[in-house]
Design goal:
The protein has 2 domains: about 1-110 and about 170-285, Rossmann fold (3-Layer(aba) Sandwich); about 125-160, no CATH class. The chain has 12 helices and 8 strands. It has helices at about 15-25, 50-55, 70-85, 100-105, 125-135, 145-160, 180-195, 200-210, 215, 225-230, 235-260, 275-285, and strands spanning about 1-5, 25-30, 55-60, 90-95, 105-110, 165-170, 175-180, 265. The strands form 2 sheets. A 6-stranded parallel sheet has the order 3-2-4-1-7-8, with helices on both faces. Strands 5-6 form a two-stranded antiparallel sheet. Helix 1 (about 15-25) packs across helix 12 (about 275-285) and helix 5 packs across helix 6 (about 145-160).
């Protein structure tokens, strides 16, 4: 059994997942590109140690902030954990807001292997090579999109099989939490203010001093502080920018889940955690 709890950031997914795992005797897999990093606690809204003590969690605090992470590695590692839990008949609750990571794990998405010291030919040569040898890799790719062309050429060189993102490789059910946008924005603004009061700036300073990988450094709540430290802007503007970026991310999350994955949506404003969990269980059992 795989149950996914998805939805925009700050809507209460973690609390719902913990309650669901306790009722089912299950374990939680975090599907979050940033909670995987140790020390990125306040800014990611990471579940606390006491919450994790209630239910086994996977893929939280597994990497140092300077270590590289990508969706292909995440896919491989999560699938290995998933397969082990399912073999032991342990209910799995996947929770998070990274829709692309969800799809990478649950669907047939192939990622090309890293190729070291590859010298890429001119774009015209890449297009000609693919047209002659693997025209299917050019499907859906605009010829002026050089980044995607390089990605498809790398896939050709590494002999990566084509993906079928519409095909699920696991049986699963996804439940999404939603609420009116104005309510969610107000909730997010208050949450970010609490993060700042809890020491977000100090957390980011400490992490920056140790060094951050490209992935970790791109997280909302972390990347916005650099202009402030450089004397280019003030703290109030940083906080507002975090709120703006978070709202933009919420829009992307909602759009992705609505169009890329089959989600049953539940009203998180009208129901508390216990009621939401009950609704999920009734639909899973049915």
């Amino acid at each position: 059994m795989i149950i996914g709890i998805v939805g925009p950031t700050g809507i209460g997914k973690s609390a719902c997942a913990i309650e669901l795992a306790k009722r089912l005797g299950g374990q939680i897999i975090s599907v979050d590109a940033y909670q995987i990093y140790r020390g990125m606690d306040i800014g990611t809204g990471k579940v606390t140690a006491s919450q994790r003590a209630q239910v086994p969690h996977h893929f939280i605090d597994t990497l140092a902030p300077h270590e590289r992470s990508d969706v292909a590695t995440f896919q491989r590692q999560v699938r290995a954990t998933l397969d082990g839990l399912l073999t032991d008949e342990v209910p799995v609750i996947m929770v998070g807001g990274s829709g692309y990571y969800f799809k990478a794990v649950l669907h047939d998405m192939q990622f090309s292997a890293d190729l070291v010291n590859v010298t890429y030919p001119p774009v015209e040569t890449i297009i000609d090579t693919l047209q002659q040898n693997a025209p299917e890799l050019l499907e859906g790719v605009h010829l002026n999109n050089h980044k995607r062309l390089l990605n498809r050429y790398t896939r050709y060189l590494s002999n990566t099989p084509p993906s079928d993102p519409s095909r699920a490789v696991y049986d699963y059910q996804l439940f999404g939490l939603t609420m009116p946008l104005a309510d969610l924005h107000a909730r997010i603004d208050a949450r970010i203010d609490q993060m700042v009061e809890a020491g977000l700036e100090d957390e980011v300073r400490a992490l920056e001093a140790k060094g951050l990988s490209h992935t970790a450094a791109s997280a909302i709540g972390y990347k916005e502080w650099r202009p402030y430290w450089a004397g280019v802007t003030d703290k109030k503007s940083v906080i507002q920018l975090i709120k703006t970026h978070t709202r933009q991310y919420i829009k992307k999350q909602t759009t992705y889940f609505a169009h890329q994955l089959p989600v049953t949506w539940l009203d998180a404003k009208a129901h508390d955690t216990a009621a939401l969990t009950g609704q999920i269980l009734s639909q899973v059992n049915r």
